[in-house]
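Now for a concrete sample entry.
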Amino acid sequence: MLVPASASDYRLLAQRRLPKAFFDYIDGGAYNELTLAANRNDLDALKLHQRVLRGVSNIDTSTTVFGQKLAQPVVLGPVGLAGLYARRGEVQAARAAQTAGVPFCLSTVSICSIEEVSAASTAPFWFQLYVIRDRGFSRELLARAQAAGCTTLVFTVDLPVFATRYRDVRNGMTGGAGLFGRLAKTWDIVRHAGWLLDVPIGGKPLTFGNLVQAVPSARSLEATKDWVDAQFDPGVTWHDLGWLRENWQGNIVIKGVLDVDDARAAVDVGASGLIVSNHGGRQLDGAPSSISALPRIAEAVGDRLDILMDGGIRSGQDVAKALACGAKAVMLGRPWAYGLAARGEAGVTQVLALLKRELEVTMTLLGVERVGDIGEGALDK
């Protein structure tokens, strides 16, 4: 039996527990997965600069992002369909984040609704919104999130269209799988009895909880997904973001920025922060890795708003590398989803504890006591 010592170990546990289609949905990227691989490879290529005899007996991993105190510079990022990885998965993840003292961001396309997550957690959480054609429904979602106490809105802008993910097509998650494909998928689900009893049987209702009001056949995940796909709006521009500010009173964070001019545009529209992200390698395959785009964006606008980064983070050492390149904090996606799929709330809690401990050790060996002191000097160039 595997005793998980890292976030990557939880990936292996998740792979064992989940049906292949659901694991690949978490794990995969767009097209040939070049950008997915680059997110990891470019992080691995960065070398850390060890310092000794620096008097680092009081390590403090805490930081402040958008006025909120974090126990470590980590946010649980929005992950769609998380409630299909473990029973009422978003609720379990929100509880784990609360225990760890870090924010949880709920996806628009979550299984658990805004209200269900709010009822299960006493800590304020963040909410993520896509660029949706139906502005009236978007306003309703924003009102519900604000009523639930959300103060930070993550506006995802790098999904004007849905990129092809070959693994999802082959597994029947998107597109028609055909008769034999459907039979194979059904057999694979039956073979994973632990997941079957926990989620489809024990985790009902399995609907996109935030979208029930918008989709007539809301009990059908497939019908709701079709509605979501049709709602992506490639016609939105920076000039359209005024309506967002009119309908949201808290922090607005733009997610999906890789270009310096786009980062400056985020500042110009009054964003509180931005997230350097290529959607985890799930959109434009061949786009640069997030970590390679981060330094030039941080140099251009880092003194004007808080910058976060996601894509490829798997350890506390990766967190330190992101901070050294200019991020205030990182967003986790796959690592917490792996933990959730493997062991529910306890798995997410353990992944966060592992990252925090790894960051503490890394800071000690870098010779810094506070995360704010992790700068360019932490990298060996």
